[in-house]
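Q: How do we represent a protein-ligand complex in a form that can be generated token by token?
A: Start from the inputs.
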Amino acid sequence: MSDFSSLGLSDWLIQQCKQMGINKPTPVQQSCVPAILEGRDCMGCAKTGSGKTAAFVLPVLQKLSEDPYGIFCLVLTPTRELAYQIAEQFRVLGKPLGLRDCIVVGGMDMVAQALELSKKPHVVVATPGRLADHIRSSNTFSMNKIRFLILDEADRLLEQGCTDFTKDLEVILGAVPAQRQTLLFSATLTDTLQELKTIAMNRPFFWESKSEVRTVEELDQRYILTPEKVKDAYLVHLIQKFQDDHEDWSIMIFTSTCKNCQILNMMLREFKFPSVALHSMMKQKQRFANLAKFKSSVFKILIATDVASRGLDIPTVQVVINHNTPGLPKTYIHRVGRTARAGRNGVAITLVTQYDIHLVHAIEEQIQTKLKEFSVKESEVLNILTQVNVTRRECEIKLESTDFDEKKEINKRKQLILEGKDPDLEAKRKAELEKIRKDKKLFKAKIQKKQDMLKKKKHQQKNEIKVLQIKRKKKTVKANN
Ligand code: AMP
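Then emit the structure tokens for the protein with adenosine monophosphate bound:
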């Protein structure tokens, strides 16, 4: 493997890497840094944890040092936590430059952000929604001179998932100059490759990690087949086991909904486990505080929804537990990528019910690896089953007595208003659609019933004819005799 100087990076940057403990470039850095320094657009598809952030931070800093001005570089990323993480790498590596950065994410004071933007920071790291809001509402800053536009977790930014960024991206792309370098990075780029190619058009350099396997070798990937009702008992048992065996390990648990995340956190705390939650229904300050507590190992367990599945780099995470089997292989890849980072070992355990087996097959096909069974003493799990399930029920009741569902409804309405939709009208439309769907289903069932009856009748008639024919035959035989 070559060193950083052979990639064309300046001494001060190499020195800065050394200070961070980074001595040799990783493959994604080795391939992408020279192409970016050459002035080409770049699309990097690298395994999560393979050093892709530094692969764009280093060449941007080098170019910035040659011609420093603000706003020089804009980085877009799907989650607020990732924005802070990326800004941190810019800050540490760009320290000798006196780098000024600005983080623009939702849930934080908009006026303070606008003021910071007006001071022309070198680098802006943003989530698309909030930045688009600033562009729409303010003329105190300009991005028409940026040299670099970077889309981190680019496929997530472009896909139309639960948070659709496409409208905000349109606003942002309209505010940045056409003459720029565009860099796109993710662990799972290939699904949205065509759309991405329309964004990066300047002789794009495409780099994909050579290995067919989309997860790192250091990751031990396991599953536990369990009935739905025993899942929580397995979870509690696993945590107990890991905590007994490894005092210094941190565990990330992924679950599908904010509500389940909240309930699991309450439940684990009842069992005196040091856990915190992270999901999008929480206030932003609480989100950061919880993540900070987990990062500093004050709390060893983080229960999260997929807001935390991408990019977060927390070296102490040795275990990822999927409380639900992810519906999409790429969600699995991002989740398990929270451990076994930068050459370290890690284990990922997925709780699989009988209804999820097809999902596991899809995951295995995508990662080109078979998940192995994680062996557990079933008797130990069954011993705690009743206690765990009773505790969960108690936590559910406790949560129901708070206004969690109500808050969720309010958040949904807020989101619709922000999207320029009328929440009541949307609810009406949804109810109408639901009614149409129901009516259709009823109609289909009715027709099916009628068809079944007709079939039955026909069958009966056929039988009756047969009986008549036999009788007639018998009669004629008798008459002939
Ligand atoms: P990323 O894939 O950007 O999230 O990076 C994962 C981790 O790898 C981070 O903690 C980086 O500091 C670390 N890292 C980045 N580049 C290197 C390198 N060349 N050698 C060792 N560690 C690195």
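The CA atoms of residues 250 and 317 lie 5 Å apart. The chain has a mean pLDDT of 89.
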